[in-house]
Amino acid sequence: MSTQKIREGDYVLLYLSRRKTYLVKVEKGKTFHTHKGFIKFDDIIGKEYGARVSSNIGIEFAALKPLLRDYIFKSTRKTQITYPKDVALIVMFSGIGPGSSIVEAGTGTGALTTALTHYVKPDGRVYSYEIREEFLETAKKNLRRAGLIDFVVLKNKDVTVGIDENDVDAVILDLATPWLVVPHAYTALKPCGTIVSFSPTMDQIVKTVEALKDNSFVDIETVECLMRGMQTERGRTRPHTLMTGHTGYITFARKATKPKA
Ligand SMILES: C[S@@+](CC[C@H](N)C(=O)[O-])C[C@H]1O[C@@H](n2cnc3c(N)ncnc32)[C@H](O)[C@@H]1O
Are 85 and 27 in the same domain? Predict the structure, then answer.
């Protein structure tokens, strides 16, 4: 892989420690202030990603190229977001990739939208439905910052009323009443298309699975993903005492033709 130089207008993750990172847009002539002194952007422009830069008081930061998860964790939040551990499973289970066409609801903060769009670009599209207009403004901002806005269609619509698109590869849901969307998803999906629904409570998954069975979906599966971080230090390596104990359950299914009998 060729190295990449940092240019004016690029985003950089200034890394001090695991707990202290800053996602910043590099602007000529400007400075970024931290509790460990300020960094001149002019000292970063032209350097390769990964280079170390010093603040005015001599503290070193690494200038890293932001990853998808940095854009997600640093998004301006208006709602609960889908965590990267769940995003990873959603992407894998849905079978999406470059060129896929996806219907998503609700957009919320746009964290999941950001990930889905990253994987379907440049030829695919994400059609993302959200009932709260003010959330769409925030999502738009987050998607623009991640350089993905051109590959998303944001729609201020109630997805339980219907889906406008046809022949889509996947329908991906993170909203309070996914079971109400299941019949619309069946109509919108191409044959053998996938549906993936993320829900925080068991009552939601029971209703969703019942609706999937009633609407000719097959290969229905619900999973929960628990992720434990490790503290790694010779002689003391073990899981961290604290972890995110619960985010939600992921239900997956595939569209099949209606049963004959
Ligand atoms: C938990 S948030 C989604 C967060 C999003 N996955 C993210 O990562 O940022 C759920 C969103 O669904 C929206 N929503 C709820 N019901 C909806 C509906 N019927 N149609 C469209 N959006 C809906 C809510 O307004 C809310 O913004």
Answer: no
Four-residue CA torsion sign, 54, 56, 58, 60: negative
Q: 55: Cβ–Cβ under 8 A, 6 or more apart, which residues?
A: 34, 36, 37, 38, 39, 61
175 lines ligand 1 (CB under 6 A): yes
Question: What residue's CA is closest to ligand 1, atom 26?
Answer: 108
Domain boundary among 66, 90, 112: 66
**What does the pLDDT look like over 59-85, one tens digit per residue?**
999 999 999 999 999 988 989 999 999
Number of domains in the chain: 2
The pTM of the full predicted model, rounded to 2 decimals, is 0.94
Residues 198 and 238 reside in one and the same domain: yes
Give residue-wise pLDDT tens across range 117-161: 999 999 999 999 999 999 999 999 999 999 999 999 999 999 999
**Protein residue with its CA nearest to atom 12 in ligand 1:** 106
Q: Whose CA is nearest to atom 2 of ligand 1?
A: 108
Q: Is residue 5 part of a domain?
A: no
